[in-house]
Design a protein that fits this description.
The protein contains 32 helices and 26 strands. The strands form four sheets. Strands 10, 11, 14, 15, 16, 17, 18, 19 and 20 form a nine-stranded mixed sheet that branches. The chain has an eight-stranded mixed sheet with strand order 8-26-25-24-9-21-23-22, sandwiched between helices. It is 48% helix and 17% strand. Its main location: membrane. Keywords: ATP-binding, Cell membrane, Magnesium, Membrane, Nucleotide-binding, Phosphoprotein, Translocase, Transmembrane, Transmembrane helix.
Length: 899
């Protein structure tokens, strides 16, 4: 047998197994169903194909996380400043800059330590035992030892160990939600299918990672390991390129601009110092170092990291676990949310919604009781059939139901129980004596029950299948013949209800004298049962908030388009039945992002429901929207969602029902699986970005003031108003604490009333730069004025005058914090004055400045001098001027907005 199979060894890899009949499948795999492989052939194939395991990418090691903290232009500039300081013998400055680098690295490293992610969860799906047939005997082997050609035997509860072509299927239903997104178990057959059959519709195949919900199966392993559909999804997830978050892009862009500015200023000042003023090299180097330190917002990485880390903490309190710091802010920029249906928008549990009979209709609510059936005999009879003709159970454990079985049958049992029809009680009156299991070909099932010397037959199934074998229909008082016209009317009624997203079952009954009677002849049609996976509570309100905030919510599901559309209407993604903006699209119509034309792109952009979507199509959909410049969030829970979760700007996995594979590649995991948690996270992301923007404006305004003051002084030959270590002291301490307080500010409550900012919008817009330039110029003028007035008016020494200019800048920075209120806020009571972090930061900074002036060791290091009361009055007067000017500007802006 081994030699015969050599020429076929590579055949199974890319074969359309669903299109081959059973005989050709066995011939292609070179195996007999009755005997299976021999041990020798199995070992040879295992050696050739390798273990039935998925390739798993290596976990991100700790040292890479550590190195990642240094990947920033600002960090590079700081590193250069430290090298220059050490090279010129300025050890205090060098160690101070180095301390800044270490603090920022430590914060980022420990915040992201838990973000180590891998695809190891995919491998766990294969770590189980399975039954195979080898050398004519059944035996149990590890799933990792399955090879192409193995005959695999499965029953209810088993995990499918490989991709199998079905050879035998007895009442087989399979849970394929982890792979295809199908919300209910899928019935399986063995007939060959068309080559172009979609993955979700290949009902003669079993796929690795899915599970048997009901029935038994015998299948031939057609693909193992990385050649399975699950393996292809794993490969997609590994190859999908993660995107750089908007905040990373903007901060890097800002850092590059600062780098260019710093280098330019340093070159100009060096040229002026050497060529024009013929200053000593030591002074020129000191000046260049001072300018370099002044131009770099040393506190920015620390402030951004801590603000994001606090955002992670606040989101965790709201059941959203964020794996990566920068993902916190990216949520605030999200413009499109691709949401899964089952479990995210819905409760992920089927519920009996309606019972429609020829004699009446009952719409079930959460609090319905048995009184609802008191005068509705026809409805009672239909529901009794659903409860009796049932293979599920509601086992009681500690007073609560522990349902087992098909979700639709569980829903029927729960619906019956809520209305006072419990299966156990009904079986006491009518004991079950025979069961005809659900047959996919017939699309119905039947049970026989002993009843007053006769046998009562209960039948349920697909409406068209049950109506076809019914000859009577129930009426108010009796029954009458079911004619073709009435039958067609009920089929049309069922199709209409299915269009509303209901999963329909038809109920029928009859009585017979013999237990061996054909259950599917001479039936009396009783009515329809409509079941629905209902929308989650509060999800519609959450979607309304998103849409009001300019965020598009679109459904992407593996389920049928009718079901998806009904849920989309119920939760408010689209309008009513006749809403022209309701546009659905099948996954196979999406196309590759590299091949679609403009017309197809527009169709995709206008669609808001994507149904029957495969993993590749989800990945393509994300890429198409990203190519358009959108910031995309994708929700998912299954293995099939992993590639798209990784590719999206924000991948959001479900924490309760999500597979480990989805959780590992996601940027955020929802502990409660609730869509409203996403909305809360988006709101927090917007708050964080707004706070970081305020912090950046604060730091750059004061840093530009430092650069202007030093550059002007060196240009006109004045003493340096600020020394390098003084600047570093201000930037790292008296800048960081107020900036951090601004970064931790509370929400204003209006974050979700504005549309998302443009993906191309920088951290600082032109208006922000104009504001920074104006306020920095005012602050620089005040610093230089304090220097000159102290030296020439008060008669201070050069070091005393520099101390005055140093403290003027320091206090001017502190008071400038209050200028950063919103123009819409009043001057006294606003988001800044109500922020307790701001007052704490100011108190701490005032203490640090007092220490800088009067603490001997620190004052010697900073080269400051103790001052009398007159210099302090000068400092106070000069430092308050920027605050007064800023508040005047804000009041003018506020009045213009109110007009």
């Amino acid at each position: 047998m081994g030699s015969k199979s050599e020429s076929r060894r590579n055949a199974p890899d890319k074969h359309n197994w669903h299109a081959a009949d059973i005989e050709d499948t066995l011939k292609e795999l070179d195996v007999r169903k009755e005997n299976g492989l021999t041990d020798d052939e199995a070992q040879a194939r295992l050696k050739h194909y390798g273990p039935n395991q998925l390739r798993v990418s290596e976990s991100r090691p700790w040292w890479r996380i550590l190195l990642g903290q240094f990947h920033s232009i600002v960090i590079y500039l700081l590193g250069g400043a430290a090298v220059l300081a050490f090279a010129t013998g300025r050890l205090p400055e060098g160690f101070a800059v180095l301390a800044v680098l270490l603090v920022n690295t430590a914060i980022g490293f420990f915040s992201e330590w838990k973000a180590v992610r891998s695809m190891a969860a995919l491998r766990r799906l294969g770590e189980h035992m399975t039954r195979v047939r080898r050398e004519g005997r059944e035996r149990e082997i590890a799933a990792s030892e399955i090879v192409p050609g193995d005959i695999v035997l499965l029953e209810a509860g088993d995990l499918v160990p490989a991709d199998l072509r079905l050879l035998e299927a007895e009442h087989l239903r399979v849970n394929e939600a982890p792979l295809t997104g199908e919300s209910v178990p899928v019935s399986k057959l063995t007939d060959a299918l068309a080559v172009d059959t979609d993955l979700a519709d290949r009902n003669n195949m079993l796929y690795k990672g899915t599970s048997i919900a009901d029935g038994t199966a015998v299948g031939a392993a057609a693909a193992t390991g990385s050649e399975t559909e699950l393996g292809r999804v794993s490969a997609l997830a590994e190859s999908a390129e993660g995107t750089v978050t908007p905040l990373q892009q903007r901060l890097d862009q800002l850092g590059r601009r600062l780098a260019v500015l710093t280098i330019f200023i340093a070159i100009v000042v060096a040229a002026v110092g050497f060529l024009v003023r013929e200053q000593e090299a030591a002074l020129v180097i000191e000046t260049a170092l001072a300018l370099g330190v002044a131009a770099i917002p040393e506190g920015l990485p620390i402030v951004a990291t801590i603000a994001l880390a606090r955002g992670m903490y606040l989101m965790a309190a709201r059941n959203a676990l964020v794996n990566q710091l920068t993902a916190v802010e990216t949520l605030g920029a999200t413009r499109v949310i691709f949401s899964d249906k089952t479990g995210t928008l819905t409760e992920n549990r089927m519920r009996l919604q309606k019972i429609i009979t020829p004699t009446g209709e009952l719409v079930l609510g959460e609090n319905e009781t048995g009184e609802a059936l008191a005068d509705k005999e026809g409805i009672r009879r239909a529901l009794e059939v659903g409860v009796l003709c049932n293979g599920a159970s509601l086992d009681q454990q500690q007073g609560e139901d522990n349902p087992r079985g098909d979700p639709t049958e569980v829903a029927l049992l729960k619906g019956g129980k809520d209305l006072g029809l419990e299966r156990e009680s009904l079986l006491e009156e009518r004991p079950e004596v025979r069961v005809e299991q659900f047959e996919p070909r017939l699309k119905k099932m039947a049970t026989f029950h002993r009843d007053d010397g006769q046998f009562y037959v209960a039948v349920k199934g697909a409406p068209e299948a049950v109506l076809e074998v019914c000859s009577e229909i129930v009426t108010e008082d009796t029954t009458e013949a079911l004619d073709d016209e009435t039958r067609q009317q009920w089929i049309e009624r069922a199709n209409q209800l299915a269009g509303e997203g209901l999963r329909l079952l038809a109920m029928a009954e009859k009585r017979t004298d013999t237990e061996d009677a054909d259950p599917y002849k001479g039936l009396c049609f009783l009515g329809l049962a409509g079941l629905l996976d209902p929308p989650r509570e509060n999800v519609k309100e959450a979607i309304d908030i998103c849409q009001a905030a300019g965020i598009r919510v679109e459904m992407v599901t593996g389920d049928q388009v009718e079901t998806a559309t009904a849920i989309a209407r119920a939760v408010g993604i689209v309008g009513g039945k006749d809403d022209p903006e309701t546009v659905s699209m099948l996954g196979r119509d999406i196309g590759s992002p590299d091949d679609i034309d403009e017309d197809q792109q527009e169709k995709i952009y206008h669609a808001n429901i994507f149904a029957r979507v495969s993993p590749e199509q989800k990945l393509d959909l994300v890429s198409i929207y990203q190519n358009r410049g959108e910031i995309v969030a994708m929700t998912g829970d299954g293995v099939n969602d992993a590639p798209a979760l990784k590719k999206a700007d924000i991948g959001i996995a479900m924490g309760k029902r999500g597979t480990e594979a989805a959780k590992q590649v996601a940027d955020m995991v929802l502990k409660d699986d609730a869509f409203e948690t996403i909305v809360a996270a988006v709101r927090q992301g917007r708050v964080i970005f707004g706070n970081i923007r305020k912090s950046v404006v604060f730091m750059l305004t004061t840093n530009v003031a430092e650069v202007l003051a030093v550059a002007v002084a060196i240009g006109v030959g004045w003493p340096l108003p600020l020394l390098p270590l003084q600047i570093l002291y201000l930037n790292v301490l008296t800048d960081v604490f107020p900036a951090l307080a601004l970064g931790l500010g509370p929400a204003s409550g209006n974050e979700m009333e504005e549309p998302p900012r443009s993906p191309r919008e920088s951290v600082l817009t032109r208006a922000h730069w104009m504001e920074i330039s104006g306020f920095a110029a005012i602050l620089a003028v005040c610093v230089l004025s304090a220097l000159l007035l102290g030296e020439h008016w008060l008669g201070l020494t050069e070091l005393e005058a520099v101390t005055v200019s140093f403290l003027t800048l320091a206090f001017g920075k502190l008071w400038f914090t209050f200028v950063l209120r919103s123009p819409k806020s009043p001057i006294l009571l606003n988001e800044i004055t109500r922020n307790p972090w701001v007052w704490g930061a100011l108190a701490l900074c005032i203490a640090l400045l007092a220490a800088a002036a009067y603490l001997p060791v620190l004052s010697d290091l900073l080269r400051t001098q103790p001052l009398g009361w007159q210099p302090w009055l000068l400092i106070l007067a000069m430092s308050v001027i920027p605050l007064l000017a800023g508040q005047i500007v804000r009041e003018i802006q506020r009045r213009r907005m109110s007009e």
